[in-house]
Design goal:
Largest sheet: 4 strands, mixed
Radius of gyration: 25 Å
Strand order of the largest sheet: 1-9-10-6
Number of strands: 10
Helix content: 25-40%
Strand content: 25-35%
Structural class: alpha+beta
Length: 142
Amino acid sequence: MKKGIVSQVFIYIFVIIVIAMVLLFGFKQVVNLKNLTEKSVYVAFKNDFSKAVDSVYYLNKGSTLVFSESSRNKGLGLPNKIKKICFQNNKVKFDSELYKDFIVDNLEGELCIDVAKGKLNFKLENNVENEEVKVKISGVGT
């Protein structure tokens, strides 16, 4: 009779260990999935922003494209950890060390824009100076 009780104790301990391992593995996978989602949002922003600059570059002089909640083009989504983006001519800088800065050809303007509700609202304008076409970025309403 004692052998049966002792073997049941080992079975319970083994079951508890297996359950703990499954929970730990599941938690790690949920965290990894969230990080992967944030990275995919960053890559989507990078591609969408570059495409928007390119599309305005090929429009007529003075043409504008507005990205905001009140326009046809909604603001571009960003990862939750990014609260501010700074533009220094063709370089796009983030306030988070987790995301790399990148360069966008033909972009002009030096300003920082706050991210509102995970979206970046901005205006792009085709600007020609000295027969050189540049896309000027500004905040919405400026």
